[in-house]
């Protein structure tokens, strides 16, 4: 862990040569060679030896084009930063601010970072809830201009609150304008929000957002690939954007000028194959010129509502059959699937689908009943399912059916309450509620969820 912490300060973010040597040799061995002032030829020989043992490492060496000259130039960048007291000072500062250090071998390391390959961070310094970094429901990046208009801030607020209510985390850069509004809306909605910083997590920047960033740390997380004490720079801001794109499932640009830094985040998202959305604005607004450019030249999806944002990740809701659709006919010799996952429509890779049925599924506790649904009226889940015509065959036995059965039109219930009733994890329930909300079959009130009255 000490070596990973050291490399996070030795190499600048996105340094592919550092990424190669750490990936091939390991952080400990690479740091030892750096401290021992090994010559470039020794580095190249070590990388070549590792490459002969690993096809992946050998391919990376060839891909980066590592030569003695490249290694020599890298060593010139790294050696002045090999100061043990600086690393120790960063770790002490992290302890003072209760920040944690995540490395690629940590179980909570965000999987999206692996898509960055040699440009992935060596470590992530997290101040706040470390589990928020790789949110179970998935994260959505909402970014835009620092010089936002009232229109842009309003749209950012609506989108952020909407995706938060649907179980996603909101990820942004903590800056003025759109970023700040996205974070605030997520906090007000009671959701999870993550701010990626271009400096150490102990240096809250911009200073005017000091209180906001403290609230984010209390309810979500502040994250940086740079050690505590590191100062934000223009380069680090640009490199920070690749992390915003990598750890999220989609990126939405709300407002951006023709040369806005938000377009840099959009470019990283597109390069990583992440869905990209852009909010249109007035054709006379210079703060929307970048969004219009994304729509016109980069095949971004037009986004105007939270449902549009969720659709970027889940795909069109029309592609999923309604729960009211009759089950397909089965031949007399057919066998009812033993696993609910085998009959669920939609992509298993989506954040609200993955693990929606199999995760933490357990049989209902015998004898547990709800006093509010034992009076014999027609408001019980079973009665509602029958009266609405919803299918009750084994082929329709999915997480959404189970969540729908746990809700009534009369009572408001929290996700944790629904989870107990449905025998699912809270994560699976929140995912199913998001899908049912898109289909118009449930609605959320101030006190909880219930079935739609329509």
Automatic annotation (TrEMBL):
GO terms for biological process: DNA-mediated transformation. Residues 331-347, 375-396 have a biased composition (Low complexity). Belongs to the DprA/Smf family. It comes from Herbiconiux flava. This is DNA processing protein. PANTHER family: PROTEIN SMF (PTHR43022:SF1). It comes from the Bacteria. Residues 101-312 form the Smf/DprA SLOG domain. Residues 318-396 are annotated as: Disordered. InterPro entries: DprA, DrpA_SLOG.
């Amino acid at each position: 862990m000490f070596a990973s912490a050291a490399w996070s300060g030795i190499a600048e973010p996105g340094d592919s040569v550092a990424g190669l040597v750490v990936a091939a040799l390991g952080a400990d061995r690479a740091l030892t060679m750096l401290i021992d002032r090994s010559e470039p030829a020794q580095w190249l020989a070590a990388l070549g030896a590792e490459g002969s043992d690993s096809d992946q490492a050998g391919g990376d060496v060839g891909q980066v084009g590592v030569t003695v000259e490249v290694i020599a130039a890298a060593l010139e960048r790294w050696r002045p930063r090999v100061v043990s007291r600086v690393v120790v000072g960063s770790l002490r500062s992290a302890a003072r601010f209760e920040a944690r250090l995540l490395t690629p071998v940590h179980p909570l390391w965000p999987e999206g970072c692996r898509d960055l390959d040699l440009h992935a961070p060596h470590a992530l310094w997290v101040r706040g809830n470390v589990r928020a970094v790789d949110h179970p429901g998935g994260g959505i990046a909402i970014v835009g201009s620092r010089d936002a208009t009232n229109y842009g801030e309003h749209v950012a607020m609506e989108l952020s609150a909407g995706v938060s209510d649907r179980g996603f985390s909101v990820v942004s850069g903590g800056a003025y304008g759109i970023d700040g509004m996205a974070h605030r809306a997520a906090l007000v909605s009671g959701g999870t929000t993550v701010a990626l910083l271009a400096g150490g997590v102990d240096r809250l920047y911009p200073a005017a957002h000091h209180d906001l960033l403290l609230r984010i740390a209390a309810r979500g997380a502040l994250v940086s690939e740079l050690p505590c004490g590191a100062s934000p720079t223009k380069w680090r801001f640009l490199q920070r954007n690749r992390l915003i794109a990598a750890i999220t499932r989609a990126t939405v640009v709300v407002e951006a000028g023709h040369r806005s830094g938000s377009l840099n985040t959009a470019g990283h998202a597109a390069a990583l194959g992440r869905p990209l959305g852009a909010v249109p604005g007035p054709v006379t607004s210079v703060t929307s010129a970048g969004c219009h450019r994304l729509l016109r030249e980069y095949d971004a999806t037009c986004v105007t509502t939270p449902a549009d944002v969720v659709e970027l990740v889940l795909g069109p809701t029309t592609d999923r059959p309604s729960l009211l659709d009759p089950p397909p006919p089965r031949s007399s010799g057919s066998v009812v699937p033993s696993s609910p996952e085998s009959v669920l429509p939609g992509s298993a890779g989506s954040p609200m689908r993955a693990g929606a049925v199999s995760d933490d599924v357990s049989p209902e506790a015998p004898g547990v009943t709800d006093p509010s649904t034992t009076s014999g009226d027609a408001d019980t889940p079973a009665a509602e399912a029958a009266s609405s015509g919803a299918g009750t065959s084994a082929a329709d036995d999915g997480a959404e059916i189970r969540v729908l059965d746990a809700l009534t039109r009369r009572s408001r219930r929290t996700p944790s309450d629904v989870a107990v009733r449905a025998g699912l994890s809270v994560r699976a329930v929140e995912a199913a509620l998001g899908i049912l909300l898109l289909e118009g079959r449930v609605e959320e009130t101030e006190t909880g969820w219930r079935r739609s009255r329509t």
